[in-house]
Amino acid sequence: RPSDATCGVGNSNSNGKASLPIRREKDFVDTFFSNSRLHFIGSWKANIDGVMSAALALNKSPQPLPATECKVRQIIHVDIDCFFASVATIVNPTLEGKPVAVCHSDHSNGTAEISSANYEARKFGIKAGMFMSKAKELCPQLVRVPYYFEKYQEISRALYRILLRFSAQVQPISVDEAFVDVSGLGDSMAICQEVRACFAKETGITVSAGASHNMLLARIATKRAKPNGAFLVPSDAAEAFIGELPVG
DNA sequence: ATCCTCCCCTAC
DNA sequence: TAAGGTAGGGGAGGAT
Ligand SMILES: Nc1ccn([C@H]2C[C@H](O)[C@@H](COP(=O)(O)OP(=O)(O)OP(=O)(O)O)O2)c(=O)n1
Ligand SMILES: [Mg+2]
Question: A GO BP term, please (predicted)?
Fold first, then answer.
């Protein structure tokens, strides 16, 4: 906080240089937020509303059947595969097939957190939130890549533009994840595959999809579909599907 | 009974 | 060399 900055180290004497620590404090806060992946994700949620209303204003998105007018809804959930890590592979295709993790630091000690790990890296037990130092213990040949926040924004917009071509009822969950109500708009698995194909063609990145008759089942179906797949839970299979889910 | 605020937790 | 922010669900409990 600027009001605290004059209490900082090296500013104890009254030589008229009190403004310097205040300015450096402000720069610190700005760089912190501009490099924070969690700030990027969190503020995007509010940002999505603008993207949505702009696209919906074009009035080109088909309206699904209201829940009251169809016996069984058709809900789709989509989630980009290891989003940030996938973007790095688009930027540098030679990373294909190698274990990759997104992180500010590549050091073997310290507490820098991994934001996203690709599926090669996950075979070693590496996952989001893990310290890079721990990840390199598990996988010394792990390739560390930087953040590309501008590209995440661009690719996220592409996903939402595609989803809104199939239905006007899109609920954003995050930068890489959304629900879509496609009740009465066609075969839900066919729509899943169309969305996946469109997105892969436009961005070169894979997105997985789950489909079922409610949001919860669709979301869990996406976990089963990953990576680079689609999975349907039919109404009469829901009980068995839920019943066999492992703990953890 | 309802509404509100605070707090804890979780998913991104 | 590191950038642990943000929104929302839901329970506890006080005010109305
Ligand atoms: N603890 C976390 C979780 C997520 N993210 C960021 C990086 C992810 O790429 C993005 C999307 O989150 P997901 O939970 O969808 O994870 P991924 O897309 O990376 O992998 P998955 O294939 O499991 O969806 O959010 C992050 O920075 N820190
Ligand atoms: Mg994802």
Answer: DNA repair
